[in-house]
């Protein structure tokens, strides 16, 4: 599945259908500077990430409801980790709901913004000094990671038995992706390194000590500024960019297609299953 960019292509596994960027960046964390979050349309980034606060918070509340459902309605908020926590909007919403929150963010700019809000944020899951936890969340981040299997394995190690991993990502086997082919919007090198599907993620989960319990199409709100900024990156700059930032605070669209998915992985309590 080649991309529109002549110097990048994705290789698809004949067995599981997973896609991987042929030449991944050596230091992917270097992509996520302030420029990615502000005027970063050419990297599938944002015209102004923090100007979209209203929509990030709406999406965060929906994600938190999915997490509560995955853990069970009687669950009392405990301890969660968000990997790819950006500037901390989901951490804000979860903390307001009573959770003890911890973030992992590779972008030094975004991590600093989250720490300014009082969040505990480190740059790698492996260096986070907290466990066990009730939940680990990856919202549109696994596809950007050099080693998603290693990230899931580390998440499983930190989870309590019965804890969950909640992931939001893009489905390369969706009807939208198949129709779009090389024009599929998720083919965004070099930041997007992996393309997933249900079978591949289910297999990966088992290999990392987790079990997939659901996979479903999901939705989110996206500001008009982000839509236009990623479609025509130059409009995110200068005077037009400033106008977009203003519009982004008040105008958004609900993503309608079938390629955005949420799935839940559970760490089974092996001691109970042996009884």
Automatic annotation (TrEMBL):
Pfam families: Methyltransf_23. This is UL36 very large tegument protein. The lineage of its organism: Bacteria, Bacillati, Actinomycetota, Actinomycetes, Propionibacteriales.
């Amino acid at each position: 599945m080649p991309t529109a960019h002549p110097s990048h292509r994705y290789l698809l596994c004949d067995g599981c259908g997973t896609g991987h960027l042929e030449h991944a960046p050596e230091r992917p964390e270097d992509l996520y500077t302030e420029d990615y979050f502000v005027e970063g349309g050419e990297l599938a980034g944002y015209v102004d990430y923090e100007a979209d606060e209203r929509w990030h918070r709406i999406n965060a509340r929906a994600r938190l409801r999915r997490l509560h459902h995955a853990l069970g309605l009687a669950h009392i908020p405990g301890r969660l980790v968000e990997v790819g926590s950006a500037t901390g909007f989901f951490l804000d919403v979860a903390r307001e709901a009573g959770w003890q929150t911890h973030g992992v963010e590779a972008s030094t700019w975004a991590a600093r913004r989250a720490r300014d809000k009082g969040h505990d944020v480190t740059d790698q899951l492996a260096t986070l000094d907290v466990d066990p936890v009730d939940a680990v969340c990856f919202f549109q981040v696994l596809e950007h990671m050099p080693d998603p299997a290693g990230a899931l394995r580390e998440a499983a190690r930190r989870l309590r038995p019965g804890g969950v991993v909640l992931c939001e990502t893009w489905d390369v086997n969706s009807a939208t992706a198949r129709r779009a082919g090389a024009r599929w919007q998720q083919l965004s090198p070099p930041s997007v390194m992996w393309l997933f599907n249900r079978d591949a993620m289910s297999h990966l989960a088992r290999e990392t000590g987790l079990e997939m319990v659901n996979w479903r199409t999901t939705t989110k709100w996206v500001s008009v500024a982000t839509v236009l900024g990623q479609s025509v990156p130059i409009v995110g700059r200068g005077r037009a960019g400033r106008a977009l930032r203003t519009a982004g605070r008040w105008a958004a669209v609900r993503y309608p297609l079938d390629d955005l998915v949420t799935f839940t992985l559970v760490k089974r309590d092996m001691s109970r299953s042996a009884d």
